């Protein structure tokens, strides 16, 4: 029980900054590029995937104090920094608007870029932290 | 007993009378932005803690072979945002202001769902050479998330149209 309370505390500490960071970055991208396509959500998800790849490599090589760092950085910060709900809502909005190509493109591109990003993040992390690939 | 803020709003007295009107407008804007960030932040903590608990429960019930916890939170979060966006939207039954919308959608739903954990889990399945399971996880995720957001939206539209 004590372990779970500790874990929740670290998750809360990470998420208290992760959510606002997402709000700031996706809003910034939206203002700069425009709101017709959800680039803001894609950018936070792709950068978050890169960061979780780095964190996974750091975890494997044992340079982070576990499980606290994982709870704070990954479950807390990155978990609330990235989002599926905005992605699905925006994809549905595009589809309902008749922009089927954009809706399908958003889904395919988000998933593809995030998977590439997590692999690249892990690869770079493995080189930096000396984890096995 | 009323607070200073309530009293000043009632009497339309500016909170900072020493400031010029444009400075007052700017300071109001700063307060509104700060409050929006606070709403997102508190919502994110609620969503994230619920997600952490859901992952722990899923791990205890189903084991680590397949990432059921993440799949489930992403489905539920998509359903909730689809429902709320329509139910509290322009033609919806629930009256909502900007703060409430940011609190629920950007905060709670955004904090509850996670794209990063999904990406890592799919990658780790591939790393373990479980390619079929990885493909199944990716395909099932995208299809069920989108189905969930649509179901939430459809349910809310129905409720919005009901008479009374």
From TrEMBL, chain A:
Keywords attached to this entry: Cell inner membrane, Cell membrane, Ion channel, Ion transport, Membrane, Metal-binding, Sodium, Transmembrane, Transmembrane helix, Transport
TM segment ranges: 6-25, 37-58, 70-95, 107-131
Pfam families in UniProt: CRCB
Subcellular location: Cell membrane
Coiled coil: none
Statement: the UniProt record of this protein carries the keyword Ion transport: yes
Activity regulation info: Na(+) is not transported, but it plays an essential structural role and its presence is essential for fluoride channel function.
Principal place of residence: membrane
Catalytic reactions of this protein: fluoride(in) = fluoride(out)
Keyword Membrane: yes
Positions with a binding annotation for Na(+): 79, 82
Membrane topology, as annotated: Multi-pass membrane protein
Family: Belongs to the fluoride channel Fluc/FEX (TC 1.A.43) family.
Function noted in UniProt: Fluoride-specific ion channel. Important for reducing fluoride concentration in the cell, thus reducing its toxicity.
PANTHER family: FLUORIDE EXPORT PROTEIN 1-RELATED
Entry protein name: Fluoride-specific ion channel FluC
Organism name: Sinorhizobium garamanticum
Organism placement in taxonomy: Bacteria, Pseudomonadati, Pseudomonadota, Alphaproteobacteria, Hyphomicrobiales
